[in-house]
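As noted in the main text, all predictions were made from sequence alone. Below is one such record, for Phosphate-starvation-inducible E-like protein.
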Amino acid sequence: MSEEIENIVTKKDKNLFERFFSNITNFDRFLDQKIDFVLLKIINILRYAFIIVMIMYLAVCLMSLSHKVIAMTINQGVLDFDSIKNILTDGLFILIILAIVKSFFIKHSFDYSITFLEIAFVVLVRKLILLQTEPSETFLLLVLGLTSALFFILIIYVHQYIKKDKVENK
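Prediction:
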């Protein structure tokens, strides 16, 4: 009889433990879902706030570039090489910022990676423009030139692949 009582007590204890851990597991799932939802909302709000800040920064950069072009043209008339180089590097910087802002709106990971490949290409071209052409920099110029050419070929290839894929899907 004592064995039966022990079995009943152990069954009740097991049942109590199972219910306790089941309740904890359910509570954990509930919290996990709620926290995921809240964190996702917070991240989306911060993402849109950052996008707004970047768009305002882009507008300031565009106004600054416009002012620089107008001021240099009024002061110099015909722009010299250094002025054009300065304007070109500022324009490429704005292009980089524009591509970064564009990447915030991309949902498809393939397009996202292509956008960052394009950003890397523009960064390399900007670096090539900014480098001084000295004999000691020849190897660096060669490597950057080859890398930017490879990026350009990859970008063209991927865009052709996407265009071909769209035609085949129609």
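The chain has four helices and no strands. Residues 1-76 form one domain. These features were considered when defining construct boundaries for the mutagenesis experiments described in Section 2.9.
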